[in-house]
Amino acid sequence: MSMQYSRRDFLQAILAGSGYLGAASLLSVIPVASALASGPGSAFDSEETITQTKLLMGTIVSISVAQAGKDRAGEAISRAFAVGSRMERMFTHFSDEAPLGLANRSGSLLDVPPELAGLLETSMQMHGLTNGAFDPTVLPVLRLLENRRAGGDSLSQAEIREALVLVGVEHMRLNDGRLSFERQGMALTLDGIAKGHIADAMSRELDAAQCPHHCINAGGDIAVKGSKTGGAPWRIAVEDPRKCGNYPQVVELTSGGIATSGVYEVFYDAAHSRSHLINPATGQDAAEASVTVVAHDCQQADALATAISVMPARDALALMDKIPGCSCCIVRRDGLMQTSRGWPGRLA
Questions:
Q1: N or C: which end of the chain has fewer CB within 10 A?
Q2: Within 13 Å, how many C-alpha atoms sit on residue 257's CB side?
Q3: Do residues 24 and 46 lie in contact, with contact meaning Cβ atoms separated by under 8 Å?
Q4: Order of strands, edge to edge, in the sheet holding 234-238?
Q5: 321, 293, 326: which is closest to 308 by C-alpha?
Q6: Quick one: which of 293, 286, 340, 344 has its CA closest to 318?
Q7: d(CA 51, CA 234)
């Protein structure tokens, strides 16, 4: 009998084996999708950056607090992780008992929690802003791909077209605290925006705990504020989607969010022609290898990175140039790198 492991099981094994859970290190460069420590440091020295890492939202989440004593930083980080855990239960679609799980299972949800309603409204706004490239109703297509991966069967275009009939926020209604779908079989996922939203909420909790200098890395969705110990800005490295060990760009930030979406993490077929980034209009794979977005907050960066990953580079760059305070770096499948106006990064 074979045993299958979920992504969560795999990440938990990594944490247990590496000693990352609750570990502390001096953060210098953060490759988008993982944290890189530059040295062990002393987590109990008030002059050091204190970092704790846990499994949350199906990924590895690290919180680093600088310019704060051990006790204050530790309490603040605990509070931030508690906020993240609570919000994860609110926005997940993997649990049938969560609000989103109940809606997907029954086709409607009475008394939508205000937090969920707010994020759904934001998701619909992002859908309009990106001309439909961001669409939280794409879950039926993702489920089809997942089911076929589990069974090892190929997927026909006819099956994709059938699943696409269930995609489109125009067939979703959110009125007076009630959520409903017009077409049976529709389902929602907030995976393209929830991590960024939660990272922002955790950042606000750190602020409230009097730790204004911090960095939250939620598996590549990163919220930062203030500076590291010594006053230097937080340095974020963009990972090479070809996994050659290079970081093509480095961004220095003292506030805001940065997020990367890439086709190199999760695949639904052996040929790696189907990733978790699906164009909601066509059901096809993402247009680009990876997209990194810098924005006012992590929620916006997360959603925009998801959306413009499935857009042609020309359209994506034009869109980003129109959104104040936002910029992007696109690494195409042929390795060519393109950036929008105002991109703050530089060569690593």
A1: N
A2: 31
A3: no
A4: 36-37, 27-31, 234-238, 249-253
A5: 293
A6: 340
A7: 13
* Rounded alpha-carbon distances, angstroms, from residue 131 to 83, 126, 268, 304: 32, 8, 26, 12
Q: In this predicted model, what pLDDT tens digit does every residue of 109-143 receive, in sequence order?
A: 999 999 999 999 999 999 999 999 999 999 999 99
Three state DSSP letters for the chain: CCCCCCHHHHHHHHHHHHCCECCCCCEEEEECCCCEECCCCCCCCCCCCEEEEEEECCEEEEEEECCCCHHHHHHHHHHHHHHHHHHHHHHCCCCCCCHHHHHHHHCEECCCCHHHHHHHHHHHHHHHHCCCCCCHHHHHHHHHHHHHHHHCCCCCHHHHHHHHCCCCHHHEEEECCEEEECCCCCCCCCCCCHHHHHHHHHHHHHHHCCCCCEEEEECCEEEEECCCCCCCCEEEEECCCCCCCCCCEEEEECEEEEEEEECCCCECCCCCCCECCECCCCCCECCCCEEEEEECCHHHHHHHHHHHCCCCHHHHHHHHHHCCCCEEEEECCCCCEEECCCCCCECC
| Packing angle, helices 194-208 and 114-129, rounded to 10 | 120
pTM: 0.85
Q: How far apart are alpha carbons 64 and 285 in whole angstroms?
A: 34
Distance CA 290, CA 100 (A): 28
- Ramachandran region, residue 337 (left: φ > 0; alpha: ψ -120 to 50; beta: rest): beta
- Strand pairing category for 36-37 and 59-65: unpaired
